[in-house]
């Protein structure tokens, strides 16, 4: 592992974080806590701190949210965010929903989504955001596991909510017009119109649950990662030093709230910092995205490698058709940011793209590149002040520089997950090495303290920045009438990082064909979600299995990459 010679010098002179090394020596999380009123009262609520407090500080008329899509074009002030989230809080209270109960949100991005999310938090309930792309099985798994009491959704998505099978789901809050409300249906618009703008906020303990994000592992169903209100300390601070947010910033995080990036950095961090937040609905297109930056004069832009690679693929000419001169700071998260993309960003945007590393489980950014720090393209950067990261071996020994091992974070940090819903043993696995959180990523640190991502330790697939558990896809595949067995791997892909490839053995009476491949892919797309559907399928008479019957994904991967298959002592035959 050689250190890349490339260094892109820092040029920012007015960054919030002036001197990284000094901050590491002097920083103390309690100094950040003291900026919040609850530090003295002990009473806290994330949504109050993000919205109401800004109104009290005089930002009531400032735009909190610009929202646009093909049919809507709106600006919502902090004052309006406050009253609309209060109204939704009252709608929930009217249904008898309160502290600790799980309320899911399953709808495309819109201002209503943000009112619902913040209003849920205001009454102390736990919010569970879902991707609109989820199909029935994915929705069912999450609502069942968490025993959700309510879901906020739209008539279009409602058929994917298996209401009849979910006895705990008492309320289906529908956002739409001319609704046909079933037995459990609630008309969002009607109730919002009737609700009071005044709400007595539910003050909670800093360690009370805030949000539930389901994420995929290599085995089992998706797990519900629980974050608490205390996470705001980290959201606020990283918003300041990593996103480099200042009050005048127009900030655009391209992530959906179904992904942790779309909440921690699409809702909490920008509002806690009093910035103006841009939300753009609809589908990705380079023209649309550049047009969004140009129109709103976006200054800080947080996106993902897949998107940057697609923008790169669209060509430099596309860039020159737009005025992107408002951009001051550009960041990336979700997968390895290729050095090539960083070099391209320098060329076409004349901006450094700052990579950031973190996970659903960490709740907030942990290893980052800062505007005032030199960048080494390909490196994730250095740990944020107040935290320590290291490369450790499987026994928890810290390894010297340039040795590959487990990327681990010294516990605790403010936004660390506090539980896995219904699954304490899963939670403990992350903390199996005394004093460390084990990320599941492998990496090394160079002699100057920069961290370099190497891969996942487990079989989790990262396709276009989304985590997909192979087990979930395999389970769906074997529900198809033609599929006997299935093994799923991530296959390297220049655009998407990885694509999902499925190896399948067929049941007796079925013959391999292109039509069958298409049918199986569609089956997963319709049953689970589009991003979990295999882009490649290969039929095999037999799949490699251990004696205990586990499909050996590492052998499938070796087949795929033409690599040696390694130790096969546990293979069945
Ligand atoms: C926020 C988020 C987490 C996994 C993580 C790692 C990969 C994230 C990365 C990165 C290389 C980066 N990942 N950021 N890999 N460089 N800058 O992505 O959360 O969806 O839970 O994914 O994504 O493998 O372990 P999540």
UniProtKB/TrEMBL annotation:
Cellular component annotations (GO), alphabetically ordered: cytosol
Residues covered by the AMP-binding enzyme C-terminal domain: 472-550
Gene3D superfamilies cross-referenced by the UniProt entry: 3.30.300.30, N-terminal domain of ligase-like
Domain AMP-dependent synthetase/ligase: 57-421
GO biological process, one term: acetyl-CoA biosynthetic process
Bilayer-spanning residue ranges: none
Signal peptide: none
Superkingdom field: Bacteria
E.C. no: 6.2.1.1
InterPro entries linked to this entry: AMP-bd_C, AMP-bd_C_sf, AMP-binding_CS, AMP-dep_synth/lig_dom, ANL_N_sf
Family: Belongs to the ATP-dependent AMP-binding enzyme family.
Protein name, per record: acetate--CoA ligase
Lineage: Bacteria, Bacillati, Bacillota, Bacilli, Bacillales
């Amino acid at each position: 592992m050689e250190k890349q010679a490339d260094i892109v010098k820092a040029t920012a002179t007015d960054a919030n974080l002036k001197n990284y090394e000094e901050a590491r020596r002097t920083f103390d999380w309690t100094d950040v806590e003291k900026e919040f009123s609850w530090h003295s009262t002990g009473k806290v609520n994330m949504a109050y701190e993000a919205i109401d407090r800004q109104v009290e500080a005089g930002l009531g008329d400032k735009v909190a949210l610009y929202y646009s899509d093909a049919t809507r074009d709106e600006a919502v002030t902090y004052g309006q965010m406050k009253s609309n989230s209060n109204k939704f809080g009252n709608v929930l209270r009217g249904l008898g929903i309160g502290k600790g109960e799980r309320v899911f949100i399953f709808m495309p991005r819109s201002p209503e989504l943000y009112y619902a999310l913040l209003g849920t938090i205001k009454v102390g309930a736990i919010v569970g955001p879902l991707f609109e792309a989820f199909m029935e099985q994915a929705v069912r798994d999450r609502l069942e596991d968490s025993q959700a009491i309510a879901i906020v959704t739209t008539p279009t998505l409602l058929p994917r909510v298996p209401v009849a099978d979910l006895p705990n789901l008492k309320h289906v809050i529908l956002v739409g017009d001319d609704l046909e409300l079933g037995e459990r249906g609630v008309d969002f618009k009607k109730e919002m119109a009737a609700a009071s703008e005044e709400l007595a906020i539910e003050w909670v303990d800093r360690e009370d649950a805030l949000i539930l994000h389901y994420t995929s592992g290599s085995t089992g169903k998706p797990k519900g990662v629980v974050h608490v209100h205390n996470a705001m300390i980290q959201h606020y601070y990283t918003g300041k030093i990593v996103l480099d947010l200042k009050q005048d910033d127009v900030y655009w995080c391209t992530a959906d709230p179904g992904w942790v990036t779309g909440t921690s950095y699409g809702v909490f961090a920008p509002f806690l910092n009093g910035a103006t937040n841009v939300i753009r609905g609809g589908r990705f297109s380079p023209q649309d995205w550049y047009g969004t930056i140009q129109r709103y004069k976006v200054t800080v832009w947080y996106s993902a490698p897949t998107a940057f690679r697609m923008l790169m693929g669209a060509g430099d000419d596309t860039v020159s058709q737009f005025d992107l001169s408002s951009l001051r700071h550009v960041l990336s998260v979700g997968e390895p940011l290729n050095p090539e993309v960083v070099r391209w960003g320098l060329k076409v945007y004349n901006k450094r793209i700052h990579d950031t590393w973190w996970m659903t489980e960490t709740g907030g950014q942990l290893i980052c590149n800062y505007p005032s720090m030199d960048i080494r393209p390909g490196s994730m950067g250095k740990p944020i002040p107040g935290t320590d990261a290291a490369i450790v071996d499987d026994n928890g020994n810290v390894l010297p520089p340039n040795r590959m091992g487990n990327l681990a974070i010294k516990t605790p940090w403010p936004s660390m997950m506090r539980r896995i819903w219904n699954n304490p043993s899963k939670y403990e696995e992350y903390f199996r090495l005394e004093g460390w959180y084990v990320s599941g990523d492998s990496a090394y640190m160079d002699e100057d303290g920069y961290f370099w991502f190497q891969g996942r330790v487990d079989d989790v697939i990262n396709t276009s920045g989304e985590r997909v558990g192979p087990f979930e896809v395999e389970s769906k595949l074997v529900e198809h009438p033609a599929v006997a067995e299935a093994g799923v791997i991530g296959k390297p892909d220049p655009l998407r990082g990885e694509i999902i490839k499925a190896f399948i053995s067929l049941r007796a009476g079925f013959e391999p064909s292109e039509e069958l491949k298409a049918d199986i892919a569609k089956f997963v797309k319709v049953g689970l979600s589009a991003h979990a559907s295999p882009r490649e399928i290969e039929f095999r008479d037999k799949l490699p299995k251990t004696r205990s019957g586990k499909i050996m994904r590492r052998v499938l991967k070796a087949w795929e990459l033409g690599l040696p298959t390694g130790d096969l002592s546990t293979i069945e035959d």
